[in-house]
Amino acid sequence: MVLVLGIETSCDETAASVVKEKDEVLSNVVLSSINLHKEFGGVIPEIAHRFHSRFIDRVVEKALKQAKVDLKEIDLIAVTYGPGLMGALIVGVSFAKGLSFALKKPLIGINHLHAHLYSALMDKEVEFPFVGLVISGGHTVLVLAYDYDKYDLLGQTQDDAVGEAFDKVARILKLGYPGGPVIDKLTQGTKSRMVEFPRSYLAKDSLDFSFSGLKTAV
């Protein structure tokens, strides 16, 4: 039996999880600092850094407690090394390195976009190859996955990520932050073609994305 402690601090959420073997999640603790960023209409890196520094130890402790696992029982420590906010990432990586050194346990760095992509395999039967779309935070990426850590990039945003576009439009319209849930709620019950928006043309046969034109159109 292998017990893995996962630590994530790439943006505005401090998170820790204990996973048994391949896919049995024993705990998953997420502490968000979103309320601290609302007045600014987006994530402020320094605020996120300080939040992670303040709560990372308590989040990890709670994850271990929920999993009913002692820290000494952990076999492997995994931590997000990127992409993300530099100051936020440093907190998680430094904390994980400290645990790894103190416990003499192996440490592996995780690209959190890979984690988003392959997390679907934890509770679903998905056969390779498959097409995956990652639209997390500041990222919009389309890939063709052949195996773990083996994939081709089919397309990506050339400007704003889709999440950024929602947040920026919400800021323009003074709807609040985060913009996605607010805009989605406002569109419930409306006619799908009530407002016509331009479609960005990048290049023939391109699978890339562009959302800055939609933002400008608003």
Q: Would you mind describing this structure in some detail?
A:
Helix content is 36%, strand content 25%. It has 218 residues and is an alpha/beta fold. The chain has two domains: 3-118, 2-Layer Sandwich (Nucleotidyltransferase, domain 5), CATH 3.30.420; 127-218, Nucleotidyltransferase, domain 5 (2-Layer Sandwich), CATH 3.30.420. The strands form two sheets. It has a five-stranded mixed β-sheet. A hairpin with a 3-residue loop joins β2 (13-20) and β3 (24-32). The longest helix has 23 residues, at 45-67. 27% of the residues are buried.
Give the helix/strand layout:
Blueprint: E1 3-8, E2 13-20, E3 24-32, H1 34-37, H2 45-67, E4 76-82, H3 86-103, E5 107-111, H4 112-118, E6 130-134, E7 141-147, E8 150-156, H5 162-172, H6 179-187, H7 212-217
Parallel strand pairs: 1-4, 4-5
Antiparallel strand pairs: 1-2, 2-3, 6-7, 7-8
Helix pairs in contact: 2-3, 5-6
